[in-house]
Amino acid sequence: MNLSGKHILLGVSGGIAAYKSCELLRLLQKKGAEVRVCMTEAATRFVAPLTFASLSKCPVYLKDGAVEARPFQHIDFPRWADLYLVVPATANIIGKFVYGLADDPVSLCFMSCACPRFVAPAMNVAMFESPAVKRNLEALRSFENTVVMDSPAGELACGEVGKGRLLEPAEIVKFLENYELLSTKAVKNNRAGAAPLSDAQKYLEETAEQEFPVSHNSSLIPSNCTRRVLITAGRTEEAIDPVRYISNRSSGKTAVALAATFLANGYAVEVVAGPMEAQFPGGVQVTKVRSACEMHDAVLERAPKADAVIHCAAVADYRPAKPATEKIKDSRSQLTLELVPNPNILRDCVASRTANQVIVGFALETDHFEEHAAEKLAKSGADALLLNAPVAENSGFGFDEVKFALVRRDAPVPQMKMGSKLDLAEAILKLVEESHG
What we know:
Elements: E1 7-12, H1 20-30, E2 34-39, H2 49-56, H3 73-80, E3 83-89, H4 91-99, H5 105-112, E4 117-121, H6 125-128, H7 131-141, E5 146-148, E6 154-155, E7 161-162, H8 169-177, H9 179-191, H10 196-211, E8 227-233, E9 238-239, E10 245-246, H11 253-264, E11 267-273, E12 285-288, H12 292-302, E13 308-311, E14 318-320, E15 339-341, H13 345-351, E16 358-364, H14 369-380, E17 384-389, E18 401-408, E19 417-420, H15 421-435
Parallel strand pairs: 1-2, 1-3, 3-4, 4-5, 8-11, 8-13, 11-12, 13-16, 16-17
Antiparallel strand pairs: 6-7, 9-10, 14-15, 17-18, 18-19
Helix pairs in contact: 1-8, 2-11, 3-5, 4-7, 9-10, 11-15
């Protein structure tokens, strides 16, 4: 099957393997497909809908809807699609498909879908081997226009070993590309009374080593990772007393867009995150901190292992010199705070950088953008600086749009432009990949 130009509806249900659907989406896009996403409510606890909306550049179909959502998505999305791909398919969603239950976007789309449907099960081996799931999978295989992909044995996310592992995203793409050949084999096998899917999986296993790597590792990073990126995220909070602090308005959305973009492009993603509202996709290793000093120590400890370090966090420049150990009483009298500078995480990271490591800083400015960005880049010693400004309505803090420019060392400051935070992330990814050749 040629995936170029295909409209693919991707259904994501609530399993730990949901994070792999981010990588799958990007692989499908690289093949020339256009992808839209629908999610169960449980799936949103594993991967934030913003991640899929940013990657697909289309609102995600959710049970509770979205601001940009259109009515009748349970009809419109399936009619738009050339094929419907459910990855991962949990025991619960498979049961709904078999018994005609439709109370969430993924099952609603399955019921109203007339195009070919591909289902990739993923669950613990104990569930996969249960009589109910075996019966439901057998029933689902008998459905017209429905293909159930195999769940090979391997190491599972829980640490156990057995069947139920989700096919790797590259394996799924290759399965789809070879589907016409496989479906021909499946017809012959059906006439002989054999199960078609085991033959399909055998074909994949026989050809996989020649065309793409097959990994049975279900750890929380993509299986094809050869590079590592470290990202700082969120904001820092500097204690005044046990209940008050100095901070800023960063929501962490930009860091989430960065993490999702690098994750989908085969990087192992590690994040040092201060307080933030946005949620990272599964597969991202997150270390939580609160103050600038805590973030400084965590970053410098982890940076030597990274091929790229992106300083996206909004770090407080100053902290109270002597935080009170007890709550400061509200006397309505004037309060004077003595502040001392926080360590400069970006400059210290540059000072201890490893060979060929790419370091990108961030600069949020509200005036004299180019002048301030060029000055900060020169002082930091970083390879590039992402200049951004929350100057337009409905952009910046907490929004998906931002005005930005990627300022490179020894190059003129480019014109700032309005774009999504995914566009921003793609610009940084491109810089990192160009730097590494």
